[in-house]
Structures are given as C-alpha cells and as structure tokens.
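BACKBONE GEOMETRY TOKENS:
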Amino acid sequence: MNSLAANRISGLDKAFLLCNQAERFEDFATGVYILLDRAVKSAEQEAHILFESGSVEDGWSSKIIARLDNGFCLRARPASAGGNADIVIEHLSGDFTIICESKILGKIPNSTSAYYNNHLLEGVKQLVTRYSTATAEQDHCILLIFCFSPKMRDAIEKWKHYFFDKSNNGTPEEKEYFGGLEEYNFADYEGQRGFFTTHPHHSSGYPIKVRHVPVCLHHQPIDKSARK
C-alpha cells in the first residue's frame, strides 16, 4: 500500500483505502480508528438525545454502529446474544477483527444511575479476559467510554490514573492480569482522541492493545431558551 499517497488525501478516503486494501492488521485498525473518530464526532452532535436508563449503552452503541458500516469493506455489528461484546468490527474477508466494549462514565441524564471508574475497569476486564486473546490479527480492542461527566478531559485523565494504579496496587488478580501495563503509541494512528494502553495478555502472553475512546455526551445548556 502506498502510505505516502494515503497521507495526501482526506481522512475518509484514507480510511477507505486502508480498509479495502488492508494487507496488514495495522492497516485495517488504522482505517477503523479513523472511521470510529468520525462516528463519535457525529454521535456527540446528538448528545441531547435521551435513552431509557437501562438502554443507554445499547442506544449509543447502536448509533456508533450505524455510522461505522457503509462501503468500507468492514462489518460492524452488535452482540448477537447476552454476554457478548457490544460491537464487533470485522473485515469482510474475515481476516481481521476488533472487539469493542461500551461503558458509561458519569451520571445518566434524568436518572439516579451513575457509573464510575470501577465500571470502566469491568469493561477492560471483559475485553481482555473474555472477548480477546491478543493472537495474530486480533490484538487491538476498544473501550468506548460514553462520558456524561462534565470536563471530559479531566475525567479521562482520572480514569487513566485509576487504571494504572489498579495494575500496580489493585487486587492480586488485577496485578496479575494487568502487570506490565504501559501507555502505547500506535504510530499509524494520527488522531488525538483518547489514549492507548498495552500489557501482556494473561492467556496468550502476546501484547494486547486497548484504545480508550471517550465520547462527550454531557449536555446541560444554561441559556434561557434551552431551559424552557
């Protein structure tokens, strides 16, 4: 693939080339991350939408899925049964797969329900102990963070600190499973949203890369017309 040519074209065209002509898993992952960023930006424009308290994660996951699929040689689908990952993103060839788990951070609007960093940690545990093995061409996964907290940037920094603290000072099981946790620079991805981590997968021993992707859904306008 001519990466120099891809660098000179729009992000959407680059994603199309990367996904359709992917020869390496890293090409596919880069294309997916470009498309995911676009899907997240689009979802953030609809932050005013309210879902029933028990369907917030599924509702926003569905909106992301709807914006991922469309002629890019990939298929994005929801879990097919209880206990499965929230989003599975697959190359149509079947060669490459990226698993995505969605979790809420903060207080859900019009609800007493609130979720904190321990909820995000459960999402990471699902990704790296239930859904992925970090074997060849399956070593990337995504934690999609639907953030209803104000000042999302600070909230995500606190989550990063919490996750790294758990790897060093958590339960014996957490220290065993997340030992060697490091921040990861995925050189092929040029975006600015969220951060990456990596650590040896407990089952396969290969490095598992987790991209932590925040979605800004805090919506509390204070102008007079909005209050009405």
